[in-house]
Specification:
Blueprint lengths: L7 H8 L22 H15 L3 H5 L2 E7 L5 H14 L4 E12 L2 E16 L2 E16 L2 E16 L6 E4 L3 E2 L4 E8 L9 E8 L14 E2 L4 E7 L5 E11 L2 E11 L5
Parallel strand pairs: 1-5, 7-13
Antiparallel strand pairs: 2-3, 3-4, 4-5, 5-13, 6-8, 8-11, 9-10, 9-12, 12-13
Helix pairs in contact: 1-4
Length: 263
């Protein structure tokens, strides 16, 4: 059994759905649509700056006291998890790409794509983190009142040459539907052995810092090939895979949305 704190990165994505961290991925001139109001750019820039300073008190000034999140985390829970996260990962970087915005009365509905990168050393091993997340937020005045996570994917890499993996998973499924997910190793293994495992978890605030353990097995094929069955209730699941070769390790987690009846 192998248990690792890979889940902590998701707390960042949840509490900072407007802030991102791979400047090389998105050019500054592509950060906002051409018609973005200056005051909206200013809001996002101030929030991003506070996040990159890891100033949780300042960051939470941008969130309403009644803030709601699609993973059932409230403002105080987000603040607590954010502080814990930055204690563990002291060099996370953020950058924002605003995909679209729409004015609805006194509220602004934003869709953003989030990129987060950082490293952490754990028991002598360097863990390199990167996340991409798309989310929808509602802004009223100068405070965020709600957030819905639309998609999410995180990778953690360890070692000099971790396996290069193609991860195939649908974004959305119907309740009770069967689905396939594969983690296919693209790197030639030669005589190298490959260990791996996959787990499925309910998206739950208690799981951010307490993930399930991986039960590793020796893989005879070049990856993991699994089939799951979506629960009968709507909601989100985390689907994770770990692959370990002699030169490194990769952990991939992706969010799977199970459609509710009224979706």
């Amino acid at each position: 059994m192998l248990k690792m704190g890979w889940r902590v990165l998701f707390a960042t994505g949840l509490s900072l759905g407007l802030t991102l961290g791979m400047g090389a991925t998105v050019r500054a001139q592509d950060q906002y649509p051409r018609n973005t109001p200056p005051e909206l750019k200013t809001f996002l820039t101030r929030l991003e700056d506070a996040a990159n300073r890891h100033d949780s008190d300042q960051v939470m000034q941008f969130y309403s006291q009644e803030f709601t999140n699609s993973d059932d985390l409230n403002r105080s829970q987000l603040s607590e998890k954010l502080e814990t996260l930055w204690e563990r990962y002291g060099n996370l970087n953020y950058f924002t790409k605003l995909e679209s915005w729409q004015q609805q009365g006194d509220r602004t509905v934003l869709e953003t794509t989030t990129f987060i990168t950082g490293t952490r050393t754990d028991t002598g091993r360097e863990m390199r983190l990167k996340t991409q997340m798309r989310s929808r937020q509602v802004l009223q005045g100068e405070t965020l009142i709600s957030q819905e996570i639309l998609s999410e994917r995180t990778e953690i890499l360890m070692g000099d040459n971790p396996p290069e993996v193609q991860f195939n998973l649908p974004d959305r499924v119907q309740p009770g539907e069967k689905f396939n997910f594969d983690a296919i190793v693209k790197t030639p293994l030669g005589e190298d052995l490959l260990l791996g495992a996959a787990i499925e978890e309910e998206v739950n605030g208690d799981r951010y810092f307490n993930p399930e353990a991986f039960d590793l097995e020796l893989l005879q094929a070049g990856g993991l090939f699994k089939q799951g069955i979506a629960p009968e209730e709507g909601g989100d699941r985390w689907i994770s895979a770990i692959l370990i070769s002699g030169e490194g390790t990769i952990i991939i987690t992706q969010r799977l949305h199970v459609e509710a009846i009224n979706d």
